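note to self: dont lose this again. the chain is below, predicted strucutre after it. 618 aa total, dont forget to put it in the shared folder this time
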Amino acid sequence: MNQLLVLFIAIPFLAFLISLFWQNKSEKAIGKLVRFTKVLYILVSVSFAIWWMINGLKPVSYQLATLYQTDHFVFAFELFYDEVTAVFSVIGALLFFLVATFSKYYMHRDQGYKRFFNTILLFAAGYNFIILSGNFETLFIGWEIKGVCSFLLIAFYRNRYLPVKNAFKAISYYRISDVSLMLAMWMMHHLTQQNILFSELSNAKVLAVQTGNTAMAAFIVCMLILPAAIKSAQIPFTSWLPRAMEGPTSSSAIFYGSLSVHIGVFLLLRTHPFWEDMLWAKIAIIVIGAATAIVATLIARVQPTVKTQIAYSSAAQIGLMFIEVALGFHWLVLIHFAGNAFLRTYQLLVSPSVLNYLVHHQYFHYTAPQQKPVSRLAATIYMLGIKEWHLDRMMFAYLWSPFKWLGKQFGFLQTKMMPGIVAVVGIAFFIFGQTVKMDIPYQNSALPLLLMSIALAVILFAFSYRGSAIKAWSYLFISHLFLIAAVLFNAAHINTIEIVFYVSGIIPAFLLGYYCLNKIKAIDNDISLNRFHGYVYEQENTGLLFLFSAIGLLGFPVTAAFVGLDVFFTYVHSDQYVLIALMALSLLFIELSAFRILLRIFMGPHKKLDHPVAFRSS
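---
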């Protein structure tokens, strides 16, 4: 029976593949496929939950496949089912049914009807990857899929300025959570010397105490709390949630009202056996949750838009769930999750009708409010709520602006000869690190730090560059050469197949993206990154291909580079703090730079006047 866990992922993923390559774009055909999928999804989730309860509520696990295995590393798909999975899967199936049914009529005659359901089906597969994950590797696959689906739905109205801008803002926060989760996987591997299952986390905690590696355990917990706080829009990362409401109302309901925004709570529940005895971790989670509950409530009470009110209200409730998780009230958390998910979904789905009613009511029954004296404290809190406590401004000023400034300091890289020179140097180090082994103390050498610093400098330049998209794209590929070379010089030996895994995904992704950019450049010889071009109007298929190349270049689980990247992390030792920080920053800004090119060239208002141009601001 445990083999049937595969159906949770297979059903929505197969439906996604069929809908993606199905040439019939009629709403009726797509509707039948989605209707069959959502009914089958409910039957499987409810039937399995009933069978699980009849058999004594015992956790169920199943190893789906092993992609790669060595003496020190195992990359395997591991599925796991317990009471947390049962609640999240049943609630997810019911909400998927409701939202998909609503969207069939809500998205009627929308130009992106097929694209919308493609993304929703892929999200359902990614969501099940997360809630059924039995180890960090499986969870991370779903984590990445969900992030990309969220990005695509926020930027669903891709010819407008604000959806595109806010999609990039959301993916920026998501990438921080991705890298944090990778760092948790990396340190957990060094702590346990194996790829551990979630069912063995309590043993890992005991091992950390017995071996005196409490600092490593504390680092892992911090790297788990951070992505949980980001994904669930907790302080100070709350501001991305209302910006994510730029997509269709039905996608906002299933993503930011019900399922996606609660993934941070799921991560804390799943990893609770590891940090349950750490008092400081509980206090940190309680403080984050309490601060979010208070601040988000104050913001929600004064916001003028209904979606923003619902977004901050949901964040406030999730803050209370964080407190409940830290206190160990797990069944209360699951009940709270179910109630909040259904409530926010309902509120978002009926919000257009409610707004229409309120506008009508105000038009015919408006009465001027009475003036009341307001204290200075109340006025201050009101203004802070209107300005969302400056969370967005603070994150931009103190998180992103310094890196943009740093990238601009490498302006000499934009000269005509520099890409070729840097590429030759990168290839030389890559070949030298693979073929010639020097007699150097690998862990203590400054060479890996130098190479990783060069990789980060090149990436930050591409991140801040406003010139040719082809040059920025080329620099992103060159940065991978230095990144691989740094790892090669940091390890005494690396299996050739592991390098092949990484390179086999990066090179095709770069060549495909290079082809797409040159195809766009041939139109009017203008692909500068100082504006939005909106070429998705004329080159929709090319834009889709470039999306695949972008996610392939950053190690998304569509190529073997995803496995290679995970393996490469294991060759950075637990005491190399500077090297891992440089590597984490490199992986963070590679994705942001690649998506920035995608958005600037293919999305946003079209620069040609013979196309409809949406207003800059809504």
